[in-house]
Model the fold of this input.
Amino acid sequence: MSNSMGKTKVRTVRGGNVYADLGLPNPEQELLKAGLTLQIHKIVKARGLNQTQAGQLLRIKQPHVSALMCNRAGNFSIGRLIEFLTALGQDVEITVKPTRKAQGEMSVVMR
Done:
């Protein structure tokens, strides 16, 4: 979802998560990983990096870069994806705050 300010927001809500709809384990984490992976893809493409160059920056082998570029986070943890973003010159901020609902939600805002 994009708005006029150029921000992309990926939000995990019941009924809005394809990973939950497919019955996959840890659907919120999978949606978060997909959002982070998409951001990595966008940065690599915007910089005109080939997969070898991206691999050198991220300190991973080219086949792993290829998987990321196809939006497959594979066995990379959320923490590792965040490390990739910081290696690509991005600041990553995590905010934890109380919710007024029975259960909280996760979201990623990418600018």
